[in-house]
Design a protein that fits this description.
9 helices
Amino acid sequence: MTAVATAAAVVPERLYTHHDGRGATPHRSNPAVIHRELTTLDVHEGMNVAEFGTGSGYSGALLAELVGPTGTVTSLDIDDYLVKWANLIHHECGLDNVRCHVADGTSGFPERAPYDRIVAWCTPPLLPQAWVDQVVDGGLIVAPLPIAPVPNMTVVAKIRVSRGEPVVEQVFPGGYIEATTSPKTDLDLPGRWVDWENRVPGASWISIAWREEDDYLHTGARMTLGRLLKDAHTEPYEGGEIDWPSWRTFAASLADPQLTAAGLSADLWANGHSTPTTAAVVQQDGSIVADSPNSRSLGILQGWLDAWEAAGRPAPETYRPALVRCDEGPGGWRLRLR
């Protein structure tokens, strides 16, 4: 039995996710995925660990068990409600080596640094400089990171920090809610890079990687979304069921400046290609939506799909990751796959 499995056997998962006093929290991840990430994190007794994204408190409780009575766990979340309840449930469980704080996790938490390990349950816009600065030499960070400047294109990365430089050792499929500066109530809408959103007559949104070319009225984004919603051409993808983690990773790896992501209906993501005058996306259910059957964007999207099939539908783990330094704002590193 692994260390994480041993910890999971003593942590009352349902007490955290469905506490009688608080009720069920939607801000939680699949326990199997949590176990995977914590196994990758390689936590040992006595370590000082930080997690960003308190959620229900379940992951923090697992970490508290893993570090043992001589270790410490710091959990951060921007949602005061979640933090208060997680602290209370930890207390009810007799865990005194974990503390939850209200804070923006993308800035880290220098008060209790340096950390042997950092894990994130939310997706920052890039690997923050603060996280790298607050990890010990040789420490590990396990976090979801964007691989393109549009929503829902992420992988989870295992990052080793040596002499202040982060190096990606492994990537695998996955992603979590985008990190935001205030608590997020609409969990169906991405928290970042939504260039236009409709709320009536139905919810829909679009994200265009070429947003810097758009005007202050977001005319390009509005028109692109409109082309995909009204009198659009639709056709099925003839290649069979789409392996979404493989396809979205391939599309991101192209690093095309016209990359586009959208949500044309509830719970159905889409990505593809667009310009100020054309648009085409493929949805998770395999349906292709375009502005016309002769759309330039449709032709490009079909070319991408053909290239993906010819490459053998590569798994996210097979790409070569690279961290690209970004000195804008607080600084950090962008993750790109090749």
